Amino acid sequence: MTELSRAQIRDLMGQVLENQGKVLPDDDAADLREIGFRSLDFSELALRVEDETGEELNFDAAGLRRITSVGDVLDFLAELQRQ
Amino acid sequence: MSVDTARPAVPHPAGADNRVVVDGVTLSWRDLPELTLLAPAVLLAQHARDALAAARHHAVHGTELLLTTASRVDAALREELSAAGFTVTDAAGRGLAPARPRAPEAGRLWLLTSGTTGRPKRVGHTLESLTTVRGQQPGRTWLCPYAPGSYAWWQVVTLSLTQPGQHLVVVEPDQLDDWPALAAAHGVDAASGTPTFWRRALHRDPAALARVPLRQLTLGGEPVDQAILDRLRQVFPTTRISWIYASSEVGAAIVVHDGRAGFPAAWLDRAAPGRPTLGVRDGELIVTSPYHGAGLAGPVRTGDRAQVVGDRVLITGRLDSDEINVGGSKVSAGGVRDVLTAHPRVAWARVGARRAPLLGHLVVAEVVAAQDLDEAALVRWCADRLPEYAVPRRIRVLTEIPVKETLKSDV
Description:
The complex is a heterodimer. By secondary structure, chain A is mostly helical. Helix content of chain A is 53%, strand content 0%. Chain A contains four helices and no strands. Chain A starts with 5 loop residues before the first helix and ends with a helix. Chain B is of the alpha/beta class. Among the domains of chain B are: 188 residues, no CATH class; 79 residues, ANL, C-terminal domain (GMP Synthetase, Chain A, domain 3, 2-Layer Sandwich), CATH 3.30.300.30. Helix content of chain B is 23%, strand content 33%. Chain B has eleven helices and 26 strands. In chain B, the strands form six sheets. Chain B has an eight-stranded mixed beta sheet, with helices on both faces. Chain B starts with a strand and ends in a 13-residue tail after the last strand. Chain B: InterPro entries: AMP-bd_C, AMP-bd_C_sf, AMP-dep_synth/lig_dom, ANL_N_sf.
């Protein structure tokens, strides 16, 4: 399985926002609500990761956690690939 | 199946002298080979010529017949048909004898439904119930691109068999990509096809399509949106463009000639002798038709989604596959498809659901672009016209419009 790096996931996140006419800030601490990254965008990002790796992500295996920042999204998806 | 080229002594149907072009050869219904079919018969036609010969055989002799292609009948269905008393014969002459022989039902024709909800099932008709064009028609040379034995195929075939002056040019599967050249060479001036069929022709070579001297152009078999009607109107400014709603179960139920998608809402619940009555119940099109299949009298739930929009009733797709649930919000895949195909650079689109975290599903799409097109621009086009949850989140660009034997993309 091809595993995407955190930087590669960040690129994909940038593409998701770009399609919405928005910009992904460089700061990982940026608040998702402030940049307008919502559940639809998160779901799309997950599909993009799946398309790149050719593997379905197993969200059932992921523990519940609070995701509020860009860094939280990147950490979560990076970890999920390994489960 | 055995072939006997001797002409039958019994009378031929009224259209027997109409011209039939098959495999590039021009002949008439009368010239087709005489088949020997053991009734009740299933003929798995490999070539259009065999299928036409079987249709004429039925018209002359009334042989109980199910006509289809080999690809639609798997081993299990062959056994099922044999158990139902049919002799199943393929084009190579291999036969499967009836497991339980029975007396044939004279005049009975069987069609297989398109099988959108699983295995194909048999619907009983007669030549009479399949012949929906009865009034005197202007002379036409019709294109027949449909798979033998489908409802649409019988519509064109019965017209040519029963009415003098209605000629036929048959398109074999390997001629589908270049049918406009064949049609132009043989003077085709009337053609019926699915929206996918027309989109492929527009996409592949619009100049070749424009050279076909069409006076009648018909669409059916799939939802017909305004974009395809408008594009065909650009190519054929003076042609009569119609769309038809028909199925094996309810027959030809709706015919619209005004160049607009959908049908007038004023037609709903209007009963008239000899005409189908149309209704919408819980978002589903309901048809009560005099042209229904055997055993389907009364209101028939079509399984097609219908919605009243202004003064029109739009048919957007199959109920069981049209609705996508995105985090509790309901999306019509057909509605999204119509937005995509309305984009001037989109030649074809298919919309579906993809499993996604948090929301259950997301809307995704495949498109074929007529010109260069980037995904972001298409997403913005949709975002300007659809609720946020209905905007396709993944759009895959294909190079060719996919088509199946039914001439449809999805079935």
